[in-house]
Design a protein that fits this description.
Blueprint lengths: L14 H10 L3 H9 L5 H12 L18 E2 L5 E4 L8 H4 L7 H12 L20 E4 L13 H18 L3 E5 L1 H13 L2 E2 L12 E6 L4 E8 L4 H4 L6 H14 L2
Parallel strand pairs: 2-3, 2-4, 4-7
Antiparallel strand pairs: 1-3, 5-6, 6-7
This protein binds iron/sulfur cluster.
Iron/sulfur cluster binds next to α3 and α6.
């Protein structure tokens, strides 16, 4: 049975509401709960619930999460893995980032090889997976049509990620794909991080360190091709290539 919205308490319904709720969250648990109540982007609210109401045959009968997806993993992680947005039948179905689809299978297998995940698979929110020193998150928390959020939607969602990064205080962000790279740089620039001009271009293996003066800390971004089937099935991104980026992340953290 599908339960769009899941009966959550009313959450933010405007960009200002998102900013206020994110800023007011005193800790990660409060923030993660607040994220799941958000309804600030009408197009994405409609989409996340519409796909849940009409799933493909292989997921028919399952209860979809159909809400915003909070970050997942170690609350004190020194490494964050940043995608772009939840997948309609992956995280939007299971309620956990990169969980329940082939992209997640590839990512978590790599994190397990790197000693950052307790198991190589990620099938459901209650599958027992735990992450060590890594947290998986995204600049946009609701599944967008065609996997593409609008600039306004990304901007509206930005405060959730900004507050998450302030609370977790990671040293490294492994950024999956060019869209995620651009979205993260834009969000970080809007949230007080110094981003070089011209902006650092995305590439697999790209590396740039940003500084936040008010928070007096640095964040190193490492580019990695996205773990999408389009990349992993064609060999554009191999397990060895993901391993190399994760190895570099381990080198950067003290
Ligand atoms: Fe809220 Fe972000 Fe989802 Fe928009 S994309 S409704 S801001 S959680």
């Amino acid at each position: 049975m599908v339960t769009p919205g899941g009966g959550a308490a009313p959450g933010p319904t405007s960009p200002a509401g998102v900013a206020a709720a994110a800023t007011a969250a005193p800790d990660l648990a409060t923030l993660d709960h607040a994220v799941t109540t958000c309804r600030a982007c009408p197009r994405l609210v409609a989409w996340r619930e519409a796909v849940a109401a009409d799933p493909p045959a292989r997921y028919r009968g399952q209860t979809y999460w159909a809400r915003p997806v909070p970050g997942f993993g170690d609350p004190r992680a020194r490494v964050v893995v940043v995608g772009l947005a939840p997948a309609a039948h992956g995280a939007n179905r299971t309620g956990r980032m990169f969980t329940g689809d082939r992209s997640g299978d590839f990512l978590f297998a790599g994190l397990h090889r790197a000693g950052l995940a307790s198991q190589p698979t990620s099938t459901a929110a209650d599958d027992g997976l735990t992450l060590h020193d890594v947290r998986v998150t995204a600049p946009v928390r609701c599944a967008p049509p065609a996997n593409v959020p609008t600039p306004d939607e990304r901007r509206t969602c930005g405060p959730w990620l900004a507050r998450e990064l302030a609370l977790v205080a990671p040293r490294v962000a492994v950024v999956l794909g060019g869209f995620g790279w651009q979205a993260l740089l834009t969000t970080l620039a809007e949230q007080g991080w110094t981003v070089p001009r011209p902006r650092p271009a995305f590439a697999h293996g790209a590396e740039v360190t940003l500084h936040h003066a008010a928070q007096a800390r640095d964040l190193t971004l490492l580019g990695c091709y996205h773990v999408s089937q389009q990349n992993t099935f064609t060999g554009r991104l191999t397990p060895a290539m993901l391993d190399a980026v994760l190895h570099r992340a381990r080198e950067v953290i003290p």
